[in-house]
Write a structure and sequence with these properties.
380 residues, alpha/beta
Length: 380
């Protein structure tokens, strides 16, 4: 069970302290129509709040943007979700930023003040998220997950969280929907890997978790979500057509992780394969969909874009936690005979000399027995 310890308080959310950021895909007519509906619903409730739209493709309806007093920022076509969200955060100047996609609509249940109040009650929380009301299925969709680790942080499982709400009806989880109010300072420090045009969700929230950034879920705060998709969108969208291409970056951003399982997909980073489970099956991962090869870019792209702690929280918990106020534990204090050595080699990705040097290093001292022995994960 997950719980929160939130003191009793109430804070006023001034619209001048709020930026609403929307990631928009303007290449599809129905998404442009959805954006217009979203903007209308926002202005009915928040008439003066700053709204920034990061437009992937730069084909947005500029008339609608002008009508609703929106700042429109163009990004390169196909640049994806992560770059768009990072762009919004950079352009925002307010203390709090609400992030959401263009396929939702505000309703009477979209109470941003409640999300703000949850953050004020818990000064250590990075963000507070809400739920979706699915307009197609007609049900509530609260995507709340809890992380657990084994193997010293090499095996990660994300399971549906049971929320024990307190203080304003919100509770602590580890991941929530892409509809959340965040402290801008947290998003600046812990942003998205721009290489992940899609399939960025788990990477973003796991990085927050590793850095001890609390995530709150407020199920009473909801937006309406239109899950219908046009044929043109399904046939050409990165999420539907090239999703597997971007799975590699979770593995590259967390090189200590050998496997990462969620209710919807499992990464096997050690073997560079992935698995899509069979839903409602007794053993969902024992399915033909498992063992698919994960597309992998050149080794020069094999690097982490996420700044991680030297000793992650997952490792400390697995080895035996130390007092929260104490200094970082040493290998001797943790009872380890040695600490795995992480070597980072900076190369110029377009330099033939750098590629040749990297190939030589992999074939010589990077393959030495001591390195293989100390590696906390398996695979090439």
């Amino acid at each position: 069970m997950l719980s929160s310890l939130l003191p009793s308080s109430l804070a006023f959310l001034a619209e001048s302290d709020l930026t609403i950021g929307i990631k928009h895909t303007s290449a599809y007519g129905f998404r442009r129509e959805q954006l217009d509906r979203l903007l209308r619903s926002i202005r009915r409730r928040y008439a003066t709040a700053e709204v920034i739209v990061a437009d992937d493709g730069c084909k947005a309806d500029r008339t609608a943007a002008h009508t609703h007093n929106v700042t429109l920022v163009c990004t390169e076509a196909g640049s994806g979700l992560s770059l768009g969200r990072n762009t919004i955060v950079r352009r925002a100047s307010t203390e709090f930023v609400l992030l959401l996609d263009d396929d939702v609509v505000f309703s009477e249940a979209t109470d941003l003040a409640a999300l703000h109040d949850a953050l004020v009650r818990d000064p250590g929380a990075a963000l507070a998220g809400g739920c979706y009301d699915d307009l197609v299925r007609g049900d509530a969709d609260c995507f709340n997950l809890a992380f657990s680790v084994t193997g010293g942080g090499t095996a990660v499982a994300a399971r549906f969280a049971t929320l024990q709400a307190q203080g304003g009806g919100c509770g602590v989880v580890d991941a929530t929907h892409n509809f959340f109010l965040a402290r801008r300072s947290a998003l600046v420090q812990h942003g998205w890997d721009a290489r992940q045009r899609v399939m960025e969700h788990e990477t973003f929230f796991y990085a927050l978790w590793l850095h001890g950034q609390r995530v709150l879920a407020c199920p009473a705060v909801r937006v309406q979500h239109n899950t219908s998709r046009s044929l043109a969108y399904v046939s050409s969208s990165l999420r539907f057509g090239r999703m597997a291409y971007f799975l590699q970056y979770l593995c590259k951003d967390f090189p200590e992780v050998a496997s990462f399982a969620t209710p919807f997909i499992r990464w096997d980073c050690a073997t560079r394969t992935y698995c899509e489970p069979t839903f409602n099956a007794r053993f969902p991962y024992n399915a033909p969909e498992c063992g698919k090869a994960m597309p992998w870019w050149e080794d020069e792209d094999d690097r982490s874009a996420v700044e991680l702690p030297l000793v992650t929280r997952a490792h400390v918990e697995a080895w035996g936690a130390v007092d929260a106020g104490s200094a970082s534990p040493t290998a001797r204090e943790l009872g380890l005979p040695r600490v795995p050595l992480l070597m980072m080699i900076m190369t110029h990705p377009t330099s033939a000399a750098s590629r040749a040097r990297r190939t030589h290093q992999r074939a010589t001292w990077l393959s030495k027995e001591w390195r293989q022995r100390d590696r906390p994960w398996a695979g090439p």
